[in-house]
């Protein structure tokens, strides 16, 4: 079986790495991002890919920057058949891509050329897409621009959020990769160039994009909430305080209230948005507190809001 240098960082990459090992590929190394401080206590935390690699007894490399590093020289000397990347998080030098015997392959969480970049899964939700999928592509110097080996689509369900889609796509990516690698190895697969006229980019989510505003419709707010769940979370400013919204649904009703007003606060907590739309808030996290269902919120600080009151700040 062919040898592989695997490169990945988040949980998305773990089923793909394990799938390669279970299928019998000789994974010579796992390259992942450096350990980083996480949470309020700033605890040094290993990446999910590193944890999996250590469980599988595979050597781990964690250069801060791969290009020009001693680690790069070591990796190139392995003369692997494949490089396989799955949400690694760094550009790879061209000489490294060219060092493998067969191909450098990327498992990408979108239907390219739509959503090149670091946040394809989030943007599929943010834009209210009906489907997303996996692309197995040839790696080139330009970001996510290589020829396509294979693609497979799945429907985006109403209750999907970013976390659920990451999990679904990681297993879809594993299966499609394992189906595609033998065809690349024996030369029976045909590559398809990406249509440059249909390229859409999905840059990493910015801090500014995390905020729910009154200018949004309820549907747009709903899409933002699920796109940013579980990380980093979307929030709205309510009477000067940050209120994270982890779960919501678009109400069937319309309202004549101005955007940002309380539509209902008895048994449900609903807010008016643009175009007379209404959003039911279902799971909330007030500043300095834990996540809670809306019932608990209403029993606490939510009870002070009155119907028709404008509570959402700009």
Automatic annotation (TrEMBL):
Role noted for this protein: Attaches a formyl group to the free amino group of methionyl-tRNA(fMet). The formyl group appears to play a dual role in the initiator identity of N-formylmethionyl-tRNA by promoting its recognition by IF2 and preventing the misappropriation of this tRNA by the elongation apparatus.
Record carries keyword Chloroplast: no
Binding site for (6S)-5,6,7,8-tetrahydrofolate: 110-113
PROSITE patterns listed in its UniProt record: GART
Catalytic activity: L-methionyl-tRNA(fMet) + (6R)-10-formyltetrahydrofolate = N-formyl-L-methionyl-tRNA(fMet) + (6S)-5,6,7,8-tetrahydrofolate + H(+)
Protein name (record): Methionyl-tRNA formyltransferase
A GO molecular function held by the record: methionyl-tRNA formyltransferase activity
Protein family per UniProt: Belongs to the Fmt family.
Keywords: Protein biosynthesis, Transferase
Domain Formyl transferase N-terminal: start-end pairs: 4-180
This enzyme's EC code(s): 2.1.2.9
Boundaries of every Formyl transferase C-terminal domain copy: 204-301
GO cellular component: cytosol
One Pfam family linked to the record: Formyl_trans_C
